């Protein structure tokens, strides 16, 4: 009997132990890719187990056929239990950014759980190409409104409807669709010589596009409530490129379920004027949208935008795969970009946002990760990053903010909300306020914090660090000593920027887009954390804080010069395509046509798959067009991962202070 009891107890203990192991050990269920864009692949690994959340999934990638791998940021362990308003599965997720278009990548995933898993596997994903002309083009000439309407009414796949210079009065509609190989192109003889003009109509769209694979290029649309609306629910692959939109309340509009649009290199000028901002009239113009899209897979890049409520937004309720890069928002009455409503894989990368109420909006994010990376954001009126709920309990989960430069007129960092942001990461940013900040507060933050990482940022000036219920510290020294936030933080001084850029005395003066290059002696130089996939190619001893690594080629903001697109544009020192040396292969020409910056030319290892490119990119990290070095491949990324995770775990323990949510 004694033997029996002992055995049963042993068996029971073993079962309990096994159950605990099953609960705490990670299991990989499936791997999926989000709809691809030209330069980003979103990776989703569905999982179960790991109740104690101590696992991690590392990622590295390379163009198919290349030899060298390139590390990406470890995937983010999404926390579905705090997501309200969307059903999100248990998963790790993350975006591989700065890839090359039309390239197949091998993606290697490595999951480790100390409770007993060590699993490596690969998948592949292919980025979309830069949209091109029909393979079998058929030119249709239009010379006036009547012949244009006829051409649009009779349009078929492969048509290149070519508009002679002139003014085309009225409103226009195209119902037809092109195809993947043979889009319908509507192209002006010159961007400023061809004008579709709404004659000042109200409640109208100058051009309505109902189909898919319709490319609108090189013309002006003006003088109406709205310039252009994509009216077809579910439409795909429409393009707006090198179009000038002016004197309109709304720029580009959409309908539900559309996907894979490419809206790039346009100039959009709305009717709002700085310093008109949201608070002036209770947000009456908050929906005077510049570019309003709806759905997955959209790319909004290199537009120059002014005079709207929100410059750029996606209105789908839980969208994926939204790339917003290279845009130059000159004014925004409300937000320069809304990532509001993203589920994951939404990326605001390398934009310049000047003169805006609350430039980067995450209101909310449904689990994430959604990213703001390397944006130059100057003359912020209200909140740098809007980590808000959707008014009620749909709080934002999974916002990641890396290497941005924020310069604001009142506080270096401001957030006012009673709702709790969850699982957010603010790392390597510069938060820069005026020498005498409002109420003496460098930071004025009232929102409760749940599992927030605020690390390795640069701050100016010294002052009161008021993080509300998460902690209040009288100065920078007390803030960093607290150990709550601010480990490895840097106090900056008034000569941080080479151009002399400083916070404006008042936001009301409209600033020209500034140069936020760091001064040689800036305290922000070499103070950043190495973030794989984000700080690659950094100069000196370590990455710099903020958006612009000193010594690296400057990115292009706004409309790119003719001949420059994703295949050859400068991207700072970040290796284009993460070792897609294909860009290196073509780097010689790319560099010269880009005015010598050639930044896209590969610092990476390995030629772009299928590229007939030269071999220059294949070996040397120093031979790329930007002359930068590639971050040496570490034997294992787990050191960084583990320190990052342990920091997160520490913060988790200290910050489980979910306070009441907004009613
Ligand atoms: Ca575990
Ligand atoms: Ca808005
Ligand atoms: Ca550096």
Compile the SSE list and pairings:
Elements: H1 2-24, E1 26-33, E2 41-49, E3 56-63, E4 70-71, E5 76-77, E6 91-96, E7 104-113, E8 117-126, E9 138-142, H2 145-153, E10 159-163, E11 166-169, E12 172-174, E13 184-188, E14 194-209, E15 214-217, E16 220-230, E17 239-241, E18 244-253, E19 262-264, E20 267-270, E21 291-293, E22 298-301, E23 304-306, E24 312-314, E25 319-325, E26 328-329, E27 337-338, E28 342-349, E29 352-356, E30 360-361, E31 366-373, E32 376-380, E33 385-386, E34 397-402, E35 405-408, E36 413-415, E37 425-427, E38 430-432, E39 441-445, E40 453-455, E41 458-460, E42 464-466, E43 472-473, H3 476-482, E44 490-491, H4 582-585, H5 587-593, H6 616-619, H7 638-654
Parallel strand pairs: 9-10, 10-13, 11-14, 12-14, 13-15, 14-16, 15-17, 16-18, 17-19, 18-20, 19-22, 20-23, 21-24, 22-25, 23-26, 24-27, 25-28, 26-29, 27-30, 28-31, 29-32, 30-33, 31-34, 32-35, 34-37, 35-38, 36-39, 37-40, 38-41, 39-42, 41-44
Antiparallel strand pairs: 1-2, 2-6, 3-4, 3-7, 5-6, 7-8, 42-43
Bound molecules: calcium ion (3 copies).
Short précis:
With 663 residues, this protein is mostly beta strands. 11% of the residues lie in helices and 33% in strands.
